[in-house]
Automatic annotation (TrEMBL):
Residues 19-341 form the ABC transmembrane type-1 domain. Its main location: membrane. This is ABC transporter ATP-binding protein. It is found in: Cell membrane. It comes from Stygiobacter electus. GO terms for cellular component: plasma membrane. It is a multi-pass membrane protein. One of its GO terms (molecular function) is ATP hydrolysis activity. The chain crosses the membrane at residues 21-40, 93-111, 176-193, 199-219, 283-301. CDD domains: ABC_6TM_MsbA_like (cd18552), ABCC_MsbA (cd03251). SUPFAM superfamilies: ABC transporter transmembrane region, P-loop containing nucleoside triphosphate hydrolases.
Length: 616
């Protein structure tokens, strides 16, 4: 319930639309009642075609048990109504009634349309805001969050779950406003025709409504499970589509197909179960309704034919009213289930919103636009949240502006983790990192990251044009700037050869380009940003000689006159480095220039050199 109130807070910007929708709902319900009520004089006129004065028939009223004010009100309405309708000859009366019926239905449908339009505006607006907020919040969350959450699951929450919340919002608004109102209107009509019959119906109706609601409850439970299954399917889909190359390379198609079909089979079974319940529901409802109807017809028939205390037209009008009451009562009985269902979905969305962004600007963060002197790692240690094991252990480094620091070490030694601390993708567990003497945590994240360019091993390009990929995140750059950066990155020539040059769309993650081309686009992007600090994770994959040389040249331009941290895999890079840091199990075990490090026969560097670098 708490969750639901939280969802309702999103109504605020749409209050005016909601009020409009409520007003139209009131008109809709009243006209709905009127259109049923009008059947009585219509039938009366038709039944009394042989000259009986219809006016006298419908004014015969009502009854003993209803409260006085109700009697009075009803009396007043019917007198006004009758004096308007039953004037003139039978032809005029018929024409007037037909006109009234037409007007009532026309107006009812116009109000019905307006009511649903405004309600859709409210619910779609709320959902848009909720979806945006969840998405915006995702960008504030730390890298660790994304490592722990499955991508498909996150996507499913922001798409499917938000949808479920939306479906229920409208249902609940209708249930809380339209349905009670409809029930009241029809109840008023029914009581005004015959309170005994109404009382009798109210005894029989709840039984059938109870059964129908129970079916609804079953349905809700199942659909919550369905939502989870859907999220699992999305997860598998996302994983295999993004990892399609690996699936193919390892010949895992049939394994993945089996995994997927197991999920779709579970989904299929569940949907069938739901469909079984759902499809049986209208039939059961119909049989129950007819059952109730037959009992009512028998009892009402007695009143009409035997006791003659009720007109046939009134009885039919009564039956219409009672049957019009059934769907709203049925809907109302499912409000609670709907709230439960949407709350479960909303909870999954709010879980994202409630995840605290651990890495954020502190109250006294300062703006810093330039890098002037040095970066210091002061006794930095780090472990990931899910384990106490130190991935970086007492790291002390001082990096002067303009120098190139190569980081080497065996796989898993902590190289990526070390460079991830510089743009604050993670914060050190202990110790601190200082830029020009200021702790990173005290510099606004926006300024800190603006000072850095990052080229990762796996080049991330967006499904957009080459031009937009190069200028990603850079405002106010001209086409010439983009071309110059591409020339410096040795990318210009191949870009010109693409089907639409700089306007060629590169495909999702840049799949339409080769590995070397993607890297050069990423380098052009970094060159265009022109940051004073570069973090660079060299690709391990071997490129052919020509592209290797082109990429290497581009990298050298990128490092030129910048402070560069490079996770090095190429001999030329370590030779160029001012300093090489050798990591082993999170500790710096050697530190110096290439030749110095190589001269230590027992050092890890020599072994690494022989294994990794020599033949490259
Ligand atoms: N998000 C994470 N959560 C938990 N442990 C992690 C996470 N990322 C990395 N690790 C662990 O931290 C250690 C260091 O990883 P890191 O990626 O920094 O090594 P690396 O030297 O860059 O390796 P490689 O050269 O293979 O990329 C590894 O043991 C790894 O299992």
């Amino acid at each position: 319930m708490k969750t639901y109130f939280r969802v309702l807070k999103y109504i605020k910007p749409y209050k005016a639309h909601l009020i409009a929708s409520m007003i139209f709902t009131i008109f809709y319900s009243l006209l709905n009642g009127l259109s049923v009520y009008l059947t009585i004089p219509l039938l009366e006129t038709l039944f009394n075609q042989h000259g009986v004065n219809a006016k006298t028939v419908i004014t015969k009223k009502l009854n003993t048990g209803a409260t006085n004010w109700l009697n009075g009100l009803e009396e007043k309405i019917s007198t006004t109504f009758n004096s308007f309708v039953f004037e003139g000859d039978i032809n005029q009366i018929l024409l007037r009634i037909c006109f009234l019926v037409l007007f009532a239905f026309l107006a009812k449908n116009i109000f019905g349309y307006l009511q649903s339009y405004f309600l859709a505006f409210v619910e779609q607006g709320m959902i848009k805001d909720l979806r945006n907020e969840a998405y915006f919040h995702l960008h504030k969350l730390p890298m660790s969050f994304f490592k722990n959450e499955k991508t498909g699951n996150l996507i499913s929450r922001i798409t499917n779950d938000v949808q479920v919340v939306q479906n229920s919002i409208s249902a609940i608004f209708l249930n809380l406003i339209r349905e009670p109102l409809s029930i009241l209107v029809f109840l008023f009509i029914a009581v005004s025709i015959s309170w005994q019959l109404t009382l009798f119906s109210l005894l029989v109706l709840p039984v059938s409504i109870g059964i129908i609601s129970w079916i609804g409850l079953l349905l809700r439970k199942q659909s919550a499970i369905l939502q989870e299954k859907l999220s699992e399917i999305t997860t598998i889909l996302h994983e295999t589509i993004t990892g399609v190359k690996i699936v193919k390379a390892f010949g895992m198609e049939s394994y993945e197909n089996k995994k997927f079909s197991e999920q779709t089979k579970k989904f299929f079974k569940l949907v069938l179960k739901i469909t079984r319940i759902r499809n049986s529901s209208p039939h059961i409802t119909e049989v129950l309704s007819v059952f109730v109807g037959v009992i009512l017809i028998y009892y009402g028939g007695q009143l009409v034919l035997v006791e003659k205390s009720l007109k046939a037209s009134e009885f039919l009008g009564f039956l219409f009213s009672i049957f019009q009451m059934m769907p709203p009562i049925k809907e109302l009985s499912s409000v609670n289930n709907r709230i439960q269902e949407s709350s479960a979905a909303a909870d999954r969305v709010f879980e994202i919103l409630d995840t605290e962004p651990k890495i954020k600007n502190s109250k006294d963060s300062i703006s810093k636009k330039s890098f002037d002197d040095k970066i210091i790692f002061d006794n930095v240690s780090f472990h990931y949240d899910d384990s106490e094991e130190l991935i970086l252990d007492s790291i002390n480094i001082e990096v002067k502006k303009g120098s190139i620091i190569a980081i080497v070490g065996s796989s898993g030694s902590g190289k990526t983790t070390l460079v991830d601390l510089i743009p604050r993708f993670y914060d050190p567990t202990s110790g601190k990192i200082l830029v020009d003497g200021i702790d990173l945590k005290n510099i606004t994240i926006e300024d800190l990251r603006a000072m850095m360019g990052i080229v990762t091993q796996e080049t991330i390009l967006f499904n957009d044009t080459v031009k937009n990929n190069i200028s990603y995140g850079i405002q106010n750059c001209t086409d010439d700037d983009i071309i110059n950066a591409s020339i410096a990155a040795n990318a210009h020539n191949f870009i010109l050869e693409l089907p639409n040059g700089y306007n060629t769309v590169v495909g999702e993650k840049g799949t339409k380009l080769s590995g070397g081309q993607r890297q050069r686009i990423a380098i052009a992007r970094a060159l265009l940003k022109n940051p004073p600090i570069m973090i660079f994770d060299e690709a391990t994959s071997a490129l052919d000689n020509e592209s290797e040389a082109l990429v290497q040249e581009a990298i050298e331009r990128l490092m030129n006159e910048r402070t560069t941290f490079v996770i090095a895999h190429r001999l030329s890079t370590i030779r160029n480095a001012d300093r090489i840091i050798v990591l082993d199990k999170g500790k710096i075990v050697q530190d110096g220039k290439h030749d110095e490090l190589l001269s230590d026969e027992n050092g890890i560097y020599k072994k690494l050199y022989e294994l990794q670098f020599r033949e490259l």
